[in-house]
Specification:
About 40% of the residues lie in helices and about 20% in strands. It has four helices and five strands, in the order E-E-E-H-E-H-E-H-H. One of its GO terms (biological process) is translation.
């Protein structure tokens, strides 16, 4: 039997409250569980009081092969019970495909505008350097 230490929702609508439970992986989220190991009240302002865990029982179940979910593992890491490795997502800050296309289009338009401005500046400099034509004298 494969076991998970996971969250089971118990709060009402828009008032989340979760129990930390050990359950069979095939059981539904809010359904049958083996034992309640703690709770998480996400609505509390004080961070120390949000999560309550029974460290002794959690150690027992981890020793018997229960795997905590990622969210529960975060709580256990804060409590000093288990170690959670930091994730590494090197592409997190990279813009999406459409944003990259927009950036490329903007850069191309900027380069074209700079080229037109340079051509206009050259034409103005050439006109200034050429000798001025004399107007025919009116008699």
């Amino acid at each position: 039997m494969s076991l998970k230490i996971r969250l089971a929702r118990a709060g009402s609508k828009k008032r989340p409250y979760y129990h930390i439970v050990v359950a069979d992986v095939r059981a539904p989220r809010d359904g049958r569980f083996i034992e309640k190991l703690g709770s998480w009240n996400a609505t509390l302002a004080n961070k120390e009081e949000r999560v309550v865990v029974n460290a002794e029982r959690i150690q027992y179940w981890i020793g018997h092969g229960a795997q905590p979910t990622d969210r529960v593992l975060r709580f256990l890491d804060q409590a000093g019970i288990a170690k959670r490795e930091a994730g590494n997502n090197p592409t997190k800050g990279v813009p999406g495909k459409k944003a990259q296309e927009r950036l490329a289009m903007a850069k191309q338009a900027e380069e074209e505008a700079a080229a037109k401005a340079a051509e206009a500046a050259e034409a103005a400099a050439a006109a200034a350097a050429a000798p001025a034509e004399e107007a025919p004298a009116a008699e």
